[in-house]
Amino acid sequence: MRPAETEPKVPRSPGGWWREAVVYQVYIRSFADSNGDGVGDIEGLRGRLGYLEELGVDAVWITPWYRSPMADGGYDVADYRDIDPLFGTLDDARALIADAHARGMRVIVDIVPNHTSSEHPWFREALASPRGSAARLRYHFRDGRGPAGAEPPNNWQSLFGGPSWTPAPDDGLEPRQWYLHLFDTSQPDLNWDNARVGAEFESILDFWLDVGVDGFRIDVACFLLKEPGLPDFPAYGTDPGGDHPHNDLEGVHEIYKGWRRVVERRGGRAVFCGEINLPAERIARYLRPGELHTAFNFDFALRPWDAAELRASIDETLASHAAVGAPATWVIGNHDLPRPVFKYGRALNAASWNAWSRAEPSDQTLGVARARAAALLYLALPGSAYIYQGDELGLPEVLDLQPDVRQDPTFRRTGGADVGRDGCRIPMPWSGDEPPFGFGPAGSRPWLPQPAAWAALTVDAEARDSRSMLSLYRDALAIRRRHPGMAGEEFRWLPGPSGTLVFARGELHCAVNLSEAQLPLPENASILLASSPVSGGRLAPDSAAWFEVPAD
Ligand code: NOJ
Predict the structure, then answer these.
(1) Does the CB atom of residue 328 touch ligand 1 within 6 A?
(2) Does 12 score more than 60 pLDDT?
(3) Which CATH number fits domain 121-180: 3.30.1300.10, 3.90.400.10, 2.60.40.1190, 3.40.50.1010?
(4) Which of 219, 291, 316, 408 is catalytic?
């Protein structure tokens, strides 16, 4: 049990702090490096908690910090109950959690149940064990097809490119056996039909609840179960749900009901956020009473900068979540997606718009203006909001990384056709005029190089500039915290010209101008915050404002 003095501050929402929390995502390798080895760590994060408190966030989600060969940045876990030495120790984790709690912030950790690392003792044991053994039944081993089993058992493709099957070491028998990995070869998928796997993960949840965490973000939460027989799937890679052979199978809900019982048994203090990239009505099924608390809203993050598109996403999200009594989450970036200033700076014609793509050109100035407006949009919506580290600085996507420094397995598995996600994972710039920009001690070399131009985007530089992205986020979070309109779930659309989004929550109004014309605000509008200067009562294109309209 956590000591009383480290209890987080009292939540505003009577329904639970998580219903309206602002969650800051720490990609730990790239946040702050305390020991100069070039990789961010727990002590580095501990030293920067003051920054997060001042920014005004309610919780921190830390990407995987477990023992791992780091083939996929830690999403390849070799020991779920220990911290990787790169990041520190379990005692460091305990100290971090205590410090965060003392500052009134919660700590959410990432849990990766779909796959382990190939270095996990279970997988090593599986490779060393005979076919059909209990050790192999924790994963998906299957006979290959074709002569001597030389072909993969089915047509499934890895999300990182290439086949999702790798041959097991040759044991002299035919046909050859293969193992399934929906991501990298080094990330074998667990067999969730095996009760031993479920029991292990419930025990891992208990372990981290004992350490004192306040919740779990669940990696690819909808992938865990595979259709029996692992059949070929003609439309593989195109179908987001429904009859998909490994996405959103019905039985997965039983797993999360069990997980919910684990946290309820412990007083119900910890919360779940599922990474569930499905249409809104399918997501809502995971948020029914007795299942997960929240889910990461990809739909909103993937929509183009278009009023009708964003409005549709907001409507669908709010309606589907209300139907199950769950709060929405709002997201514009994470460690897998291109940076918002890059994403929103791209042409919007359907042929070129692809929120995941890093290959299409982007107008940086336009992207910054829109990302500022997007911040005021998503931070004003009812529910919980996520900020990916560095988005509050307006960091751009870094596109010119040399092949030899790239580490995302996607780059290698696609032969470079997909450059991968390293460009949104560049270590944070904190201060100073040259790399490592305070990320690590002077003279240290961050694991990915930082652009020299980031001198203008450091936390220190932006904190001194009242017009910076950081100042905008700080001001927005301060208003969000104290304005009565932001509490609770009230939300109403107001009329506005085509290409605009105008809504109110209590007395707080938000107008977003996605059109090419100026948007006149109500005559007596009293501006609380704007993403660009409001002149003559008009909001410029690609801008947003929060305001009140006092009664005459
Ligand atoms: C989703 C995570 O966000 C991503 O970074 C990771 O590569 C995959 N899941 C596989 O674990």
Answers:
(1) no
(2) no
(3) 3.90.400.10
(4) 219
